Every structure is written in structure tokens, then in C-alpha cells.
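Workshop exercise sheet. Pairs work together: one partner reads the sequence aloud, the other fills in the structure field after running the prediction. Swap roles for the next sheet.
Pair: D.N. / O.F.
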Amino acid sequence: MTEGRITPDTPDEQTDQTRQLADLRHAILDGDEPWLRARLDEMHPADASDLLEQLSADEFEAAVEMLGGELPSDILIELRDEYREDAVDLLSDAAVADALDALDSDDATAVLEDLDEDRRERILDEMAPTERAMLEANLVYPEKSAGRLMQREFLAAPEFWTVGQAIDFARNNADELPTDFYEIYVVDPLNRPLGYVLLSQLLRTRRDIGLADIMTDIQSAIRVNMDQEEVAYQFQKYSLASAPVSDGEGRLVGMITVDDMVHVIQDENTEDLLALSNVSSADGSDTVLDSVRARAPWLAVNLVTAFVASAIIAL
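Structure field:
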């Protein structure tokens, strides 16, 4: 999920992006669905979402409708919150359910959070029982908690396994593994995390070596109810790429990866900056009235200070 982007700095990048945006708008105007679909497919999801976010609300809606009410899940999750909400509103329940099936559980939870309760229930009814139970369990946890951020897909192995057993298990169950992961968690018989083994270390170690002999102790204890700011602090403090999440009994129930923490840190910094300035956020998709409301307090402060400065100069 991307919560804000950096404008290209070089003239060549700006020119290329302007050209891409113009081509996209022409395709939408001409109703050229094959070109639109092919263009989005060949772009990186982050670049595709960045391009779509530069469209007006009407153009964005037209683009989603041209795609037959479907949007690739990897692009959907990269959209900023307000655009993702608009896209989900345009998608059918079946299309949203298909997108959720293709996403890791943490990203799927983020999409479900945008839905009203009635529609959320309809979409969950479209999903397999195991997937539904997993997502419903995530939604039980408080907002902005580790339980909401974590993904349920992870790789754990008992402490008595060898490196070879762990590798074979991962290969035989590839469909059940998360899209991206960096560590294997070593657990005791009660499924409590004891340590972890980096994938890079796993690949460099002989097959007959036990996981318990090469595992590293877990530096941070992240519980499902921990606030996301505290989780972000743990990631910064220990330079983590991922971290296991335990329930109240200490059992391993999920993991959080660094990409989620980047978004959390960005959100928290933006929130703190806006609070310091006593203004609310505003976005390119906002109406004129929303933008005025967001900027009015800060503009008023600037106007008052300008009058004060002018009065002092006059004196």
C-alpha cells in the first residue's frame, strides 16, 4: 500500500510522465480498453497507480469502468486510500472478492476496512471459509494495532527440524507462503516463537544442520494489540525487515514486514505535522470546499502574521 509519492525531479522524468498521462487520457476519451489494459499490465503497479491518481475523479471512474469493473489487485493496493475507496466502490462484489483472494491478508484487511459493514459481509460470503475466517480475525483487532497490520501468511518450523526439512517444506507448500518474506520462524511445541533464521543464512547452511543451531533470538516482542507507532519504533530500533506477532498467550499468529512500517511512519509523520500546523489533510481528489476547509486555518495564521509584520514595519 503507497501513501504518498515523490514527484519526479528531472525534466526527462517529468516529460515522460506528462506524455504517459496524456496518452492515458486519450485512451480513456477514445474508449480504447485494449490499450489501457495492456499499458497497465506492462507498468510496475506503483507506477500504474501513480499515473491513475493523476486523473480527475471522472477520468478515474471511466478508466475503472473501461476495465469492466475490474482492477488488478496489485494496482488496487498501491492506490492511496481515497482512490482505493473510489475504486472499490466501482467494483462488483465478485471483483473485490477476487482481488482479496489474490492479496496477502494484511493488504486484504486494508481493503475491507474501506467497506461499509453490509457490503463487507456480502464480499466475505463470496470467499472460501478459511480465507474469510482469517480476515474476520484480523478485523477484530483495534485500528492502528499490530493485529490489523500483520499478515497471517508466514513460514514457521519446529525447533527440531533441519535446514533441509525446512527448505523441502517450503518448496512443497509454495502456494501457502506469503508473497514476500525474509525469515523462517522457529517455534516450540506450543507454537511460541523462539527465534528466526534468515533466508540468506538458510541457503548458505548445509541441509543436515538443525534450525535451533543457527537461529537468532528475537529482539522485539510484538503483541497483537500493540499500537502501530510502537511497532514502528521497534522496527527502527532493531533495523528489522520483518517481525513475528504473538497473541496474548505468546503464540505466533502472524508477521509484519518493513513495507507496512514505511507506510505507518509516513502516515504518523504526516499526522504529526498537520497537527502541529493545526490543519487537516487535503488531496488532489478533494473538492474545492474540502481544500478550502483544510487550508483555511493555516492561511488565516499566515494572514494575521503578515498584518503584524506590516504594522511593525509601519511603526
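Discussion prompt: The longest helix spans residues 288-314. What would you look at next?
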